[in-house]
Amino acid sequence: MAVVAAASSMGIKRRKVVAKTGNEINPHIPSYVSSAPWKGACDNCGAMTHNVKECTDRPRKFRAIWTNKNIAPDEKIERFELDYDGKRDRWNGYDAALYVHVVERYEARDEARNKYLKDQQIKKLEEQNTNKQNVGGGVDDDHEEIEDEYSSHYDPKTRSMREDPLPDMDPNDKFYINDHTTVWGSWRNNHQWGYRCCKQLIRNTYCTGAAGIAAADQAGAI
Question: How far apart are alpha carbons 41 and 81 in whole angstroms?
C-alpha cells in the first residue's frame, strides 16, 4: 500500500477512481471502510427484503455474497423528479379518495353503536314492564291500575279503598272552586277575563252571585 501511494505521489501510477463520480479513491482508507458491508441482505440473490431462508430464487453455485454480481432486488424503488416546492409538499403522494373508507368505517361503527343502545333500551323497558305485572305472590299495585281518579276512592297512603264521600252527588256535575258555577275565562270585559256567574275579574275569589253582577253593571254604567 505504501509503495502504491509513493508511486502515485510521484506520478508513476494513477490512483483508482470511482466509476460513477470519477473521484480518486484514497489509498489510506481501510478496505472494511471503503467496501460496503454485507448486512441484512440475502446471501443467495442479494435482495434486502428477505434472508437466505426465505429466498425463492434458484440456489446459485456462486452466491451474491461472494461475487457481488447479478443482484436481484425484489423491491421497487420509485424515483420522482420534483421541484423545490414538490420536495417540501407534506401531502405529496396522498390520495384524498382513500379517506372515504375512513368515513365509512366510522359511520358503520356509529350505526352499530346506536343500534346496540336502542336494543338495550328496548330490552330494559321490556324488563320493567315484566316486573310491573302482577304475578302470584306479588304486590297489588291498585293505584297504578286505576286510570280514572273519580271512578274509585283509593287512599295511596293507607292503600285502602274508602267509601264515596259524596254519594248523593251527580257524577255528571262539574266541580268548581269557591262556590262558582262557571269556570275562569267564561266572561270577558274590557280585555280582561272573569267569571260569568258573578262577573268578577279577580281570579280565585269567592263567588258573589247576583250582588256581584249588579255591582259590575253599576260600575260599567259609571
Answer: 28
